[in-house]
């Protein structure tokens, strides 16, 4: 994997946890709206909507660059629509991003080793 792939995975990872938090807060706001006079649903809905759109854009970019299988791509998408799925996606993506960075460093070292030899 190259560094652009690692960056795409990192962007997706960085937006996954805030998206999950905003989803949970939106659910809490929805309950509060129906049980009290407190109505933060329009604000939280907009925040969550923006974060979800970013997640989908970054998910498409990461899928394209990382050449994920359809199953892996579907897993990351399903995790985005589950209330706590973003936390699991973040953990899994962190490992994948670290592996991608290590692979990029190893590939660069091999290339520079061949050039310098």
Automatic annotation (TrEMBL):
Spans through the membrane: 39-60, 72-89
Chief localization: membrane
Membrane topology note: Multi-pass membrane protein
Top-rank lineage group of the source organism: Bacteria
InterPro entries in UniProt: DUF3817_TM
Domain DUF3817 intervals: 9-95
Keywords tagged on the record: Cell membrane, Membrane, Transmembrane, Transmembrane helix
UniProt subcellular location: Cell membrane
Pfam family, one: DUF3817
Protein name listed in UniProt: DUF3817 domain-containing protein
